[in-house]
Amino acid sequence: xxxxxxxxxxxxxxxxxxxxxxxxxxxxxGFIRLVDYMGKDGSLVRAARTSYGKGTKKASEDRTLIRYxxxxxxxxxxxxxxxxxxxxxxxxxxxxxxxHRTASINEYSGRYxxxxxxxxxxxxxxxxxxxxxxxxxxxxxxxxxxxxxxxxLLVSDANxxxxxxxxxxEDGVARELARIGLPLxxxxxxYWKMDLHNLFHFxxxxxxxxxxxxxxxxxxxxxxxxxxxFPVAYEAFEDYILNAxxxxxxxQTAMMDIMQGIDINQVAKYRFKNKFERQEFLDKYKLxxxxxxxxxxxxxxxxxxxxIMRKRNKK
Length: 315
Ligand SMILES: Cc1cc2nc3c(=O)[nH]c(=O)nc-3n(C[C@H](O)[C@H](O)[C@H](O)COP(=O)(O)OP(=O)(O)OC[C@H]3O[C@@H](n4cnc5c(N)ncnc54)[C@H](O)[C@@H]3O)c2cc1C
Hints:
Blueprint: H1 14-19, E1 24-26, E2 30-38, H2 41-52, H3 59-71, E3 82-90, H4 91-97, E4 104-107, E5 128-130, E6 138-141, H5 144-170, H6 175-178, E7 187-195, H7 196-207, H8 213-229, H9 231-242, H10 249-259, H11 264-271, H12 275-290, E8 295-300, H13 301-304, E9 306-311
Antiparallel strand pairs: 1-2, 2-3, 3-7, 4-7, 5-6, 8-9
Helix pairs in contact: 2-3, 3-9, 7-8, 7-9, 8-9, 10-11, 11-12
Bound molecules: flavin-adenine dinucleotide.
């Protein structure tokens, strides 16, 4: 136990080594840290070559192979990297997190141990109104006095419930029963193991702006750590999964309308009868518009037989 070997025959990721054990604060009292891992970018290549042979060997070809695997959803080689995390989060975050079924989890036991007096209390600006667009989301900013009142209520409720939790235990009640009145804001902790393929799936769903802000904060931090640990695979994940825009058949038709010069608002109104689908299409279009950058095409077929694209601002 606890011995550190300076020499190993295993694959080592320099980025992951720097991250190991480093605690990153999330929310008011939570944290996330990478506690262990197996493999590195090269693990995907090694696993994949059992099916593709030794045809490609250079580092640049390794990168191409990793990108191919992620792009073509050849996912099993991506499962050959493992990650283990130690997370401390409020129970309402853990409830969303635990829905990702491909993890191995070992959680703090409120039957065995006393639950610490730790609750998540949101910052004032996070206390927002119910969203009018998304039934699962938050919306407009509330007046400061409302935010303050709500925060005070959350603090006093948490203190009162914890006071009762202590009193119940003083009466000799079992911890497994004493805890049942604790709120969803109570902090819990776990060790969480997941392979890289399923971690990418988790990150895609939980970094997404539709996920609740509190779990997003964990996912964003985990994404940063994963990026440092497995940079080539993560770059492919960003390009082909995280930042990819998926267009339904209807959205493809609407895009063709726009490319033929029809106004976006008319297209949205005419094509999308469902207001949620319409809004999703408008959001996707806005996202695509934000990627627009000025470019100039040089057609130089005689020399290179290729179209050379040059950014105007680089001239
Ligand atoms: C924004 C958002 C809102 C949500 N809202 C709700 C909600 O209101 N109510 C609610 O209950 N949940 C909600 N969820 C949870 C959601 O429905 C999924 O349970 C969760 O995101 C896990 O996704 P997953 O099943 O793809 O992932 P994982 O459990 O990690 O599974 C990964 C993949 O493995 C496969 N898989 C795993 N287990 C099985 C199985 N038993 N059978 C078949 N295939 C399997 C599936 O292909 C799956 O995609 C929400 C999730 C998000 C991101």
